[in-house]
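User: Show me a protein chain along with its predicted structure.
Assistant: Here is one chain, sequence first, then structure tokens.
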Amino acid sequence: MNTQDEIYFEQLSSHRERLADALDDPALSGVKNSVVEKYSDQAHFVYELLQNADDAEATAARFVLDKDKLVFAHNGARQFSISNPKTEGEDAANGQLGDINGITSIANSSKNKAPNKIGKFGVGFKSVFQYTLTPHIYDPNIFFRIDRFIVPKKISEDFPGRKPYETLFVFPFNHSERNATEAYEDISEKLRTLDYPLLFLSCLKEIAYEILDEV
């Protein structure tokens, strides 16, 4: 990230903190749940990750499921961008909203304005919050996690084993209402029974998965 992007990131983080405070107010207690529960299908977010990888022009993607987390990586040519938090409305309307802005928003994405794109980091990504409270993202340009549903926070170190060209996501199984065992079972079942995942994807040609500690 260049100096301007660093400034935007800090401004975005501060802005999202204020919004997260509002979402924690009892008057808005149902907002997060209603967004996450829109995709009630078990581990639906697996398909959302594949779609986002395809939107990023990835040709290969891989999942590694462990007892305490899911790792997802792809070789997409498009890397995470950030835009001015003060002009998010205009940027979204013009298809110029940054990816970090979009992934930390609720139903505010340039995806809706891009032709031939089902959407990049729209509401569908929020379905990961069925299983984790803190998604981690490691991109060639930046490492960060998402706290409190919408707040981006920098991570200082890369994820071990990430290939230099990969964008990699880590989803720790730390949800207060779904334990790690339940998450592991749900996601392992989804990975084993993926239904023609490449059928409607234009770029992805290879999807691999590994389930660790499987008996």
